[in-house]
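Hi, here's the filled form for the chain we discussed.

Project: internal
Contact: R.S.
Residues: 172
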Amino acid sequence: MVDNTLGILPTGEDNQSRIRNPSESMALLFVSSTKQIVGFLLAERISNQSNTISNTKPSYKNGQGQTSVNSECVMHELDDETQNKVCVGISRIWVRSDHQRRGIGNQMVNTMRSNFFGDYGVLSPEQFAFSHTTPNGTDFAMKYMKNNFERANFLTYAPIFANGKRSITSNN
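And the returned structure, exactly as it came back:
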């Protein structure tokens, strides 16, 4: 259901999407007070050897004395040193539509950042990346980064599969 809602296209020979490395992944569920699952986050360990990592920055345009953020973000390749810092990718994040804009996505990302590596501390913004995002996912990532780190740019990653092709599906 989450993959369908997010527009994730099936991959692989059996035409299904899969967790690439279940033993190095974390799934978080947000359960409402009525005991319904209203949020889901899937994070995975990543490296620049198996992923293309980019810096996604919103583009700004000036018009009639006002500055607005263009909904299209511009991706910039990162230098090797910066790419080597990224170790966790948010593969999927979903919040049920009637529970959106209540801080659930924020709480799930913060929980993932605090708990992915256990006792190693909270992940910095240079240590995690979002998968390629939908327009709503881009808005969420920009707002999350701005509220938590006072910047709108965020890191993205695209998995490189065994056949050498990049994933171009939208996952957030």
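Let me know if anything looks off before we file it.
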